[in-house]
From TrEMBL:
SUPFAM superfamilies: Homeodomain-like. Residues 178-276 form the HTH araC/xylS-type domain. Keywords: DNA-binding, Transcription, Transcription regulation. Coiled coil: none annotated. The keyword Transmembrane helix does not apply. This is HTH-type transcriptional regulator YdeC. The gene is ydeC_1.
Length: 284
C-alpha cells in the first residue's frame, strides 16, 4: 500500500515488505529490490531457471515473470517503488512540489532485460552487513517517517544500495586494485585511511598507488575522494538533505571539509551545484 506522507500531505508510491513470501512478485507498477538473507530457492525467471542462494539481491521490474519452483528456509525482505520514484521533484513551502527533468540513473540497468544479467546479484560477507543496515533503516523510515526528509533519506539509501550492487558487478577479477575498489564502494561512508587500503590490497603505499595510477589514472585516496563526491552529487541533485547530512553520508567528517573539497574539485560549492542542477533541469 502506498505511503501517505504525514509531513507534506502527499502520497508516496513505495512499500516495504518485511517478510517477502514471493506470492505477489513482481508487484504491479513497481520496481522491486528483494534482499534474500537466508535459505535457497529455485525460480523460473522470464523463462530461465535461476537458483538463488542467500545472501543475494533480486532486482525485478513489473514486466518480469517469476515462478517459484522450490524454497528452502528462505527469509527475505523487499523494497518496491513506482518507477516515478526515480524522478526528482523538489518541495517548496511556498509553491509546493515542483517537477523537474532530473532522474536518478544509478542502478537503472539492474532492472533491465538483457542476456548478461540474471537480475540476481550475489552478496558476500563483506557487503552483507552494510546492505542489512541500509535495508533495516530504509524499512524503518517507511513506517516511522521520522521527519519531513524521510523520503529524501529513503532515496539516499536507494542510491547507495543500487550504486553498490552496480559497482561490485563491474569488477569480477580479484586483483589488488579491484579489492580496494570493492572496499571503497562498500565503506566510503565510513572513515578510511590509506593504511586501510594498503592492508586490503596487501601492498605498500608506493605499489598500491602505482597500480591505481595505471588502472584508474589517480591514487587510491584520490579515487576515494572522487567517488565520495560522485555520490554527493546524486544526493545534492535528487534529495533535499542538508549539507551536513550529505557530508556524513559520504564519509566527510564535517560539512565544512565537504564544502572545501567539493569547491576545490568541482569549482563551485555544493549549494551552487544543487542550485545549478535544478535550474538546468527546469529549462530542459
Amino acid at each position: 500500500m502506498p505511503q501517505m506522507d504525514r509531513h507534506k500531505n502527499r502520497t508516496v508510491y513505495i512499500e516495504f515488505i518485511a517478510n517477502e513470501n514471493f506470492v505477489n512478485l513482481p508487484y504491479k507498477e513497481r520496481l522491486t529490490i528483494t534482499f534474500i538473507t537466508s535459505g535457497s530457492m529455485n525460480l523460473q525467471l522470464n523463462g530461465r531457471p535461476v537458483k538463488i542462494v542467500a545472501p543475494s539481491i533480486l532486482c525485478l521490474s513489473m514486466e518480469d515473470k517469476i515462478e517459484v519452483i522450490e524454497k528452502q528456509n528462505v527469509s527475505s525482505q523487499s523494497f518496491c517503488f513506482h518507477p516515478d520514484f526515480f524522478n526528482t521533484a523538489h518541495f517548496s513551502e511556498n509553491t509546493g512540489y515542483l517537477s523537474t527533468n532530473l532522474k536518478i540513473k544509478t542502478g537503472l540497468l539492474l532492472f533491465g532485460k538483457d542476456k548478461i544479467h540474471t537480475r540476481v546479484y550475489a552478496v558476500d560477507e563483506k557487503i552483507y552487513l552494510k546492505l542489512y543496515e541500509w535495508f533495516f533503516i530504509m524499512g524503518t523510515e517507511v513506517y516511522a517517517q521520522s521527519d519531513s526528509l524521510w523520503v529524501c533519506r529513503i532515496k539516499k539509501y536507494l542510491i547507495q544500495i543500487l550504486g553498490l550492487i552496480e559497482e561490485l558487478n563491474h569488477h569480477s577479477e580479484e586483483s589488488p586494485v579491484n579489492l580496494v575498489l570493492e572496499y571503497i564502494h562498500i565503506n566510503y561512508s565510513d572513515k578510511i585511511t590509506l593504511e586501510d587500503l594498503t592492508r586490503c590490497a596487501h601492498l605498500n603505499r608506493v605499489s598500491l598507488n602505482k597500480s591505481f595510477q595505471d588502472l584508474c589514472g589517480c591514487t587510491a585516496m584520490a579515487y576515494l575522494l572522487a567517488y565520495r563526491l560522485k555520490v554527493s552529487e546524486s544526493l545534492l541533485t535528487h534529495t533535499d538533505m542538508s549539507l551536513n547530512e550529505i557530508a556524513r553520508a559520504t564519509g566527510f567528517e564535517y560539512d565544512t571539509y565537504f564544502i572545501k573539497q567539493f569547491l576545490a574539485k568541482k569549482g563551485m560549492t555544493p549549494t551552487e551545484f544543487r542550485k545549478n542542477s535544478r535550474e538546468f533541469s527546469s529549462h530542459q
